[in-house]
Amino acid sequence: MEELNNTLSKIEQFVEMTKVAPKNNTKKNILGKKKTQKGFLSELKYIECFQMIKHALNLVGKLERHIDQPSAPVFVHNLFKALTMVITNCPNPHWAASVDVPQLTPKAIALLESCLQPNEMDLWKSLGEFWTTSTVYGADQESTNPTHTPKFYRQTESSEYPMVNHQHNPAKDQERMSPRPSLSQKPLLMQVQYEFESRNSKELTVVAGEVLEVLDQSRQWWLVQNEAGRRGYIPNNILEPLPPGLQMNRVHSSSPTRGPILRPSSKPQEVMDWLQAQNFSPITVKSLGVLTGNQLLHMQPRELRLVCPEDAPQIQARLEEMKMLLGMGR
């Protein structure tokens, strides 16, 4: 209940901000030059608000039997009042319909279908499938549906990564949705464009630039496998096709290893395991094993020469190789 109250409070604050915020982010000064207007709310902020509203609807659906004074339908009506006001003040009314994460749960959808007023029902239906359908994985809808709890930020904070509701490119979307190759064909490799943090055991945490193998793309959340062999679901629209050059490099490289993998999110122990797997000297492993993956991947050649002069050239070569695989060398 506390989470619901906090979310409702954030939504209310944003609604008040939309009442006074300019719809255009620039205006001309007396010299005719454009300058950014104060108080302008970015697309990302509107997207985050729409995500909070969907998240709140999911919470109300989950807590319906435990909510009283006011009842769950009252919460729903208030949320739709807020949704109407935000859409009315939004510079682009289509932003709301583009918000695909989180999807509404079956309980939330059942609640909306039972209590929405005609005008609210019309608004809900007009927002399209991202608001009116629920992702279903297998027979057990609730236990196997990967759900996403959005991260919420204060107005002065910035997101760690753009929410997965980025602008869609129809050509790239079509490319992403191309049929899965058969087992006799090359594996389908895709590159992560935005960081995603798993919220349950069925999802997979990934970082921008990471290369994944797509195992199942029959649903809106795809089953993928990373270099370490870990599997999980992630939103399909944070992936892009692997660049042809990088695809070829991976095809002609040696068979994929299932040993330690170095990536920006690696912790010091994982970095140490990777260094040991590369057969670097004990001194090098000890010196660099205290770093995170992000710190090691961003070390400059001169820094490597100072810390581990004997292994510096080999380490630099392996780091450049890993950067290429992670898409950090572009």
UniProtKB/TrEMBL annotation:
Keywords: SH3 domain. CDD domains: SH3_Eps8. One of its GO terms (molecular function) is actin binding. Residues 185-244 form the SH3 domain. GO terms for cellular component: ruffle membrane; vesicle. Gene3D superfamilies: SH3 Domains, Transcription Factor, Ets-1. GO terms for biological process: positive regulation of ruffle assembly; regulation of Rho protein signal transduction; Rho protein signal transduction. This is SH3 domain-containing protein. It comes from Sarcophilus harrisii. The gene is EPS8L3.
